[in-house]
## 1
Amino acid sequence: MNSTANRNPTHDPERTAGGDGANFVAATYPGPFRCPLCATIIAVGHNFLEHMRVHGKEVHFLCGKCSKSWPTIHSVACHYSKCGRQITRSVRQPPVAVEDRPHTVVCTDCGDQFTTARGLQLHRRNAHIEQFNADRPREKKARWSQFEVLALAKLEVQLPSNIVNINQVLSKLLFEKHGLTRNVEMIKGQRRKSRPPMDKQTQLQLKLRDLMNTGL
């Protein structure tokens, strides 16, 4: 059990129990997130929420920098972007419902010992960042959900038409407003896919406009 935790630093949510048997999971933001019930790895927070609701579970998010708990993906995303802490602090957590944590897990990079796998993970991310990133599982390029497509479209229509670096701006807004992590190339591809095809007349007009702007 210890060796598995050392090899796979994917954010593994803890299953916890509230009153009347109501279960939820505590997941470390920004992910990727691993379902504690079926071991599915999910990169996007909103998709992880939808996945856990299929299992009948709710999700609380923990800041990956300071371990503070947040009830929604939006609240933890806003906090995470402003959180400047690099050292973890202890946070009171609900009792673990499924099994006891290992008494000791050892960092293979320096030999330091920790009482939880999450403590080891945060230590490696801060003290051995290169090794930590090398050990992370390669994520598959997640497909855009309907929520993400609509969120991107709504943000784009609210921007002025003459804005520069629109893909960078949209990437930042997606993260700040919805906690969605999409890079510039992903956004560029999705916007191109959502754009209706131009007819020949429109293409000709655009070419003529470019020629006029260049003075030819």
Note: The chain has three domains: 24-81, 105-135, 146-211.
## 2
Amino acid sequence: MTSLCRSGITLFLAIQLAFVSSTKSPEPRFLETIELGVGHKDPKPRFLKTIELGVGPKDADGFRDEMKIFNIDYTGSEDMMSNAAFVVTQKWREVDLVVIGVAELGFDPHKDVDFKKVFAKARKIGLELCPPDVAPQLQLQYPEQPIGEQVVIGMTPITDSDNNLGLFLVGRLQAGFFLESYVEDGLWLSSYVGGKNDLALFPDQQLVFVRPRK
């Protein structure tokens, strides 16, 4: 699995919502479609988690080794982690992560939106883009992630081996198939890939940003 196509993600969401609703597992927090409409003027990011950067792995290989230990499937993110643009934070610091949906930022809930417009709106309300290593660090430091949740990391895109723009995607499944990749324990780190010059985000996609500390 090197990328996630729209039909694959749509199928995944449908399967996961059906599965979660039939079990007693915690409800996924961020999967529902948000019908706020254009011009929503008071976007409220939700606090996700405070994580540490600059701890543990110091490069991509270190993250691969660490994720193997915890049975995290990272095959879908291999291309991006192999890119020189995947820079790992070396100095320790904490970052407060928040989640907000594309439609919640005021975009049409029925249309895909170019990532540049979405990120510009996130900056306008005081959020910052994540360093790329937020993705594997979040996955390693977020064992309580609800089943069925998937979040895209708001970051400067990194190209894959086909020079397509990509963002990291962090999610959790229960044992089962996901786009031809079998996920044994349910935790995975993948990529959300667009074209060579564009990357559109779904209106119900949930994005992770850094909330600066005052």
Note: The helical segments are 6-21, 60-69, 78-82, 115-124, 134-140.
## 3
Amino acid sequence: MNAQEFTNLYTRQASDESITTFQNEMGFSLVRFYPEGTPYHNDGRRIFIKIAALDRGFFYGVDMTKPQKREETTDYVITDGEEYKKKVTNFTSDGSEFTFDENSKKIIHEPTGKKFSMNEFVDILAANHLSDRLFFKRIRNDVANRILKFLFWLSDAHYERIQTAIDKYHYSKGENPPPKDDKENIEPFFKYFLISKNILFAVLLVTFPSAVFLGHLWKAGEFSLSNPSLVLLFFLVLFSCEKFSIWLDRKIKEFVMPSRDIFAEKKVNFMERLHDYQYNNKFDLKFNMRRN
């Protein structure tokens, strides 16, 4: 079966805008209108569905897209639709859940043995996309995102999930990351301690209120700068902040610009795990959902 024959298994519906057969793979992409009355339809968004039967598995993906006209062509830019109160679910398969049987021309769900025609399968994909299948996962993703934003902020840097993924992609291809505002060199605090400005700000934000409200609980002598124990504690905190600042800056650089040495042992640091976790949005398709 070739790509065109595979595409012909799908009968075009009234809600479909266009169908494109893949050139070098047995599969097709489908652009479909959102149901009328939904905010996505009113804003001109489209459902972008991809289905392909390859040697390494049966793959599919569904995304919300925003059409952008360029001269005589239309580009479909993938978006997550976070601006909408009622969320949709973008998702991509790993190729293991379904198979395609060329004899029966059916798509088979491996765990249950259920068979679906191409139109039934497309409707299942669209229905799952229109449902907020990742409500709780999105909350966990938001926590991971906020942690990374905070860690980057502490190092006087900025984390943005999509832009960071683009930067990492360019770097992995041997290209320089897109130009950014260079972070100013850290000026030594007290001409000695190399502490990022935001770490210093965060420490002072915690220290001063604590000193004002909890100073009376200090048991190691008078709570003043004349107390050697207090001065020692102060410089110990600065020393710890310097070590943390240098360590955090190194971890961020290792995450954004990992080593290209193919012989070096690849170590995935905790920032990369948090970043990748936001993209790991796997779930089992529901077959009994109705399109809205």
Note: The first helix runs from residue 3 to 7.
